[in-house]
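Hello forum,

I keep getting stuck at the same step: I have a sequence, I want structure tokens, and every attempt I make locally crashes halfway through. Rather than fight my setup again tonight, could one of you with a working pipeline run this one for me? It's a single chain of 309 residues.
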Amino acid sequence: MLEIDGISKSYFRKKVLEDISFKANEGEILGLMGPNGAGKTTLIRIINQITSADKGYISFQGKLMKQDFLKDIGYLPEERGLYRSMTVEKQALFLAKLRGLNSSDAKTQINYWFDRFGIQGWRKKRIEELSKGMAQKIQFICTVLHDPTLLILDEPFSGFDPINIDLIRKEIIRFKEQGKTILLSTHNMQSVEEICDKAVLIHNGQKILEGNILDLRNEHKESIYSISFHGNMIGFATALWAGYEIIDKIAHTDEFFTVYLKMRKENEINDLLGAVMPHVKITEVKEVLPSMENVFMQQINGDKVAIDE
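Reply #2:
Ran it on my machine without issues. Output:
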């Protein structure tokens, strides 16, 4: 659906993007990650033909990107841009027409989305009368009114409370199920982990990581396991040997614990279980994978895997 090939961009001799390449497939949610100033927004502006690259190309559905294709793209910028003096209805109608809808189709789509989001009562309100969260809803609706095949969402959860974050997240997943491609740029690492199929990490204008979400988490794991058990903590610890290191523990009660262990060298979980099972009653064992936030921090700062439960 979308191919980025060798994109580079400089401003005033400062390199902002350097040889960025990746692909987003049909029916896929790709998380575009990176710290502030990494170059994510510049890349998104290049995709949307707002600015041009110094080098490289972008193709959409197998053809070089051009202005005509923008009618099939929905773009939600990080810097929201609604006309404050317009009513909600006129704003939505205006932006729908800019994306190529005629008046009749625009009104049909507006009715559908206003019903879906439960905001029919907001039609005659001016944008300046709305809370930030309400205005964000309108902006999101205006992004999808023309039924685009590619959605580019820059910080789509910004300004929303948890209820509306869940609402927008469900809509994004529904778009994926319809076969749409979503490029999602966000600092919300939990959302990347929960809904994205792939992730691309950009740092200092360069791509430093790309892959399937589960694969990336597995690649950065550090042989950490959590074991929950009933019994005596001292007895459990005594049964261990030098091949295992307790890195954290939680005492749920006087006789119920969860312990986080890091394996060393060639030891296996079966060896560990064989050692401790005569001393405690194990209720759960699982491998601890790093979260996408942990992966992000490892790549940017070289931090070790943190425990997220």
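The domain at 222-288 is CATH 3.30.70.1150 (Alpha-Beta Plaits). If your local run keeps crashing, start a new thread with the error log.
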